[in-house]
Amino acid sequence: MSALAIPGAAGVPVALRAGLLALSALLLNLPAGAWRVRSRRGSLSWVAAIHAPIPFAFLLRRLLGLSLWFVALTLVFAVAGQVAGGRLWPPRPRAS
Questions:
Q1: Which of 18, 25, 55, 68 has the most other CB atoms within 10 Å of its CB?
Q2: 54 torsion bin: left (phi>0), alpha (psi -120 to 50), beta (else)
Q3: Nearest residue to 9 via CA among 1, 57, 59, 87
Q4: Listed residue (25, 21, 27) closest to 64, CA to CA
Q5: Residue 77 CA: distances (Å) to CA of 4, 43, 48, 63, 93
Q6: Average pLDDT of the chain?
Q7: Within the chain, where are the H helices?
């Protein structure tokens, strides 16, 4: 358990904490994925859309008292959220 963890988080089953982390990573990345597909690839906005949710996922993992082993789970669900967000809210066609 890290010093940053929520008191009492150790009493919650690891599977439940891991599921909360995975769901949060997915939901945090939905709007970021929509932002990413509207940005020009390689631009500062595009890079920010990919990296903006990372500190929140890191903080949540630490607060839940989960180890570094759960970074891979977070990464998988973050990528899924980026892809899903880009498909749920595709860029609008430009008016000519």
A1: 25
A2: alpha
A3: 1
A4: 21
A5: 23, 24, 18, 18, 28
A6: 91
A7: 14-37, 44-51, 54-63, 71-88
Distance, CA of 32 to CA of 67 (rounded, Å)? 25
Q: Give the residue extent of every domain in the chain.
A: 13-26+54-91
| Closest to 73 in 3D by CA, of 22, 10, 3 | 22
Residue with tokens 């993992």: 61
Read off the pTM.
0.85
| pLDDT tens per residue across span 34-44 | 999 999 999 99
CA distance 43 to 57: 23
